Amino acid sequence: MSASPPALSPVVAGLWRIKDWKLSVRERVRWIEQALELGITSFDHADIYGDYGAEALFGEALQAAPALRQRMQLVTKCGIRLRAASRPYRINHYDTSAAYVCAQVEQSLRNLHSERLDLVLIHRPDYLMDAATLAETFRTLTREGKVAHWGVSNHSASQFALLNRQHPLVTNQLELSPLHMDALDDGTLDQAQELGLRPMVWSPLGGGRLFTGEDEQAVRVRAEMRGIAERYGISLGTLAFAWVLRHPSRPCPITGTGRVEGLREAVAALDVSLDAEDWYAIWTASKGHSVP
Ligand code: NAP
After folding, report:
1. Rounded to two decimals, what is the model's pTM?
2. Which of 72, 73, 103, 231 could in theory staple to 118 by disulfide, Cβ–Cβ 3.0 to 4.6 A?
3. Is the CB–ligand 1 distance for residue 258 below 6 Å?
4. Span from the CA of 207 to the centroid of ligand 1 (angstroms)
């Protein structure tokens, strides 16, 4: 089963770190406007980001400038019960029950001052997920007009297939970067390509480790990539995005930067066509050995 995917922008902006940016409402509005001007129209959230507070920070900006809403796609996630002052669970755990998913979708709608979410993802695979029941929840929320599309994040290929057979999913949001390449081998990107469903890619800069990591792998990859970036006349950040974008599953990388210049560097990668040898040189530096 497959669904017609939502029109996400080729580079997506992630709001995981919005609380750290310490922007006023006016500055948040300006940041969103500048992202839109760069062609970044999709914004990636999760109910739990910023100790359950990130969506509301973005929502305040939308409340201050409501016309922005029609120019963007809102993506959010739910399914993790994360301990917080307001949520004193005994332990962190996953919950994909109808009651919890519905409650979190309602909460996201309120936080984001929106009547509809363009895409909602199940954040992590819930080992207690009943696929048929969850699919029924998806159908209910779609019928009510609250959620346009559904997807998952961090699901294995078989976990994706299990749920996708019950309800069409439009993406699997996965980690991929020059520092983290599991998705190349674990079947998730193969599945995305087979189904023609563009994966969303998180932490394309390794969460910043590409620039600041002092471990052997980060130092090795950075040195290799600096040489390649210089040859292409682009920044290290742009090269990392170009490396992700080169994959044939046509990923939509999610930038996590709070800086408009950082957004610009991400978008610049759309104009870079990375040679296969350079792509493999980065793979080789990451693994610490040549291809077999
Ligand atoms: P990332 O783009 O790999 O890392 C962003 C970090 O790198 C920021 O702290 C940024 O700081 C730093 N950075 C960028 N350019 C830099 C430079 N030139 N020098 C030094 N540091 C630099 O992405 P991410 O934030 O880890 O993840 C992106 C998004 O993916 C998140 O916002 C979230 O939406 C999503 N995500 C999803 C999952 C999931 O499980 N589905 C997990 C993690 C993240 P500046 O702000 O200073 O640029």
Report:
1. 0.98
2. 73
3. yes
4. 4
